[in-house]
Amino acid sequence: KRSFRDLIREIRDVDIWVHDSDHSYYWQSFEYQLAFTKLRPNGFLVSDDILDSTAWRTFVQPISQNEILLDGEKFIGVAKHCKR
């Protein structure tokens, strides 16, 4: 967690952040929070397998315009960062 945070600190703000790694609630929540600190206004957070935990619903849905896409049997979330 610390090394990931240190790595992210070195990058500039981004227009799109794609999460497709550890799908546990703990990691998704951590990464979504970190991603929103790096997203430019109107940037997008995209997350694969959003049904693997409740992190998408508890973190992203209350604070962002978002869509849920169905790709076969997988659910993908797309959230727009509206404020800075």
Can you offer a commentary on this structure?
The protein is α+β, with helices and mostly antiparallel strands and 84 residues long. A 4-stranded mixed beta sheet has the order 1-2-4-3, covered by helices on one side. β1, α2 and β2 form a beta-alpha-beta unit. It starts with a helix and ends with a strand.
Summary keywords:
4 strands; 33% helix; 84 residues; single chain; globular; alpha+beta; four-stranded mixed sheet
Q: What is the count of helical runs?
A: 3
Mean pLDDT: 88
Query: Which class best fits the helix and strand makeup?
Result: alpha+beta
**Rg estimate, integer Å:** 12 Å
Low-confidence parts, pLDDT < 50 over ≥5 residues? none
The major β-sheet equals: 4 strands, mixed
Q: Tell me how many strands there are.
A: 4
N-to-C terminal Cα separation, in Å? 24 Å
Largest sheet: spatial strand order:
1-2-4-3
Report the helical percentage: 25-40%
Shape: globular
Relative strand content: 25-35%
Q: Spell out the helices and strands N to C.
A: HEHEHEE
Topology diagram in text:
Layout: H1 2-9, E1 14-19, H2 25-38, E2 39-47, H3 55-60, E3 65-71, E4 74-80
Parallel strand pairs: 1-2
Antiparallel strand pairs: 2-4, 3-4
Put the structure in a nutshell.
The protein is of the alpha+beta class and 84 residues long. It is built from three helices and four strands.
